Amino acid sequence: MMLLRKDTNLQIMGFTAAILAWIFCSVSMGLPQWRVWYFQELVDSKPSMALVGLWRTCIYHYNNYSSNVRVCHRYTYHDSFVPLSIRVAQHLVLVSSFFGMAGTISNIIALWKLYTERVQKNTTYNSFFFPGILNILASSFVLFALLYNYLCIMRNEDISFPPFFHIPSFPYTQKAGSALAVATLAAFFFVLSGTIFISFTFHPPRHWSSF
Fold first, then answer.
1. Residue 174 is assigned to a structural domain of this protein
2. Domain for residue 169, yes or no?
3. How many whole angstroms from its chain centre is CA 113?
4. How far apart are CA 130 and CA 22, in angstroms?
5. Mean residue pLDDT across the chain
6. I need a labelling partner for 44 at 20 to 30 A (CA). Which of 35, 61, 93, 209 fits?
7. DSSP single-letter state for residue 45
8. Where are the extended beta strands (E) located within the chain?
9. Is residue 58 part of a domain?
10. For 168, phi and psi rounded to 5 degrees?
11. How many whole angstroms separate alpha carbon 199 and alpha carbon 211?
């Protein structure tokens, strides 16, 4: 049973990485810090900051008491001002989250079969291959969303926000936010778990060798 125990321990590591990847992916999707905009207030020309996320934008305004006032605006699929880069990232990260969930469920089933020794001694099918593929696909989607977002930041691309957002279309500068670091961790753990799952080789317990 020693070989079987080593197999399950390795797959538990992959399962843990997959869970972390799915958590980081889901968290990054809800964070507004995908892009950090710096601009001047339209009325009194005071410096302000906006956090542009996949589903909402949060603006920090300075009031007369030198403190920040945060106002957040959510947007949906029906808002026409949302640029293509954010639309693409919305779909990619959302699909990655679903892939991660499906991979986790199929991995639980594969682990249950391995722990209960329901894998036949002459089997050649890797039951962890499917969740591995799902996690690698999720990693590639998250990476593409990250690269697309970085490209938009480097180009300092504009966004035509509605007038009631009180944000100019062009910031005087913008940078990557902390949500990109969380999404990067998600992509790393997705590809790590996927690699572990795909490279799995089943070693039957020694008592099977007598049959």
1. yes
2. yes
3. 29
4. 16
5. 82
6. 35
7. -
8. 35-40, 47-52, 56-62, 68-74, 173-176
9. yes
10. -65, 155
11. 26
Could you read off the pLDDT of 138-170 as tens digits, one per residue? 999 999 999 999 999 999 888 989 888 888 888
Regarding pTM above 0.90, the answer is no
**210, part of any domain:** no
Cα-flanking dihedrals φ and ψ of residue 124, to 5°?
Answer: -120, 0
Number of folded domains that form the chain:
1
Distances (CA, A) of 159 to 6, 129, 171: 52, 41, 9
Residue range of the domain that includes 42: 2-204
pLDDT higher than 90, residue 6:
no
Torsion of CA 13, 186, 201, 112, to 10 degrees: 60
Alpha carbons 66 and 59: distance in angstroms, whole number: 15
3-state helix/strand/coil string of 70-111:
EEEEECCCCCCCCCHHHHHHHHHHHHHHHHHHHHHHHHHHHH
> Rounded to the nearest 5°, which phi and psi values hold at 62?
-90, 130
pLDDT band at 3 (very low <50, low <70, confident <90, very high): very low
pLDDT of residue 204: 52
CATH number at residue 145: 1.20.140.150
The pLDDT assigned to 60 comes to 84
Q: Which amino acid, residue 80? A: S
45 pLDDT above the threshold of 80? no
48 and 58 Cβ atoms separated by less than 8 Å: no
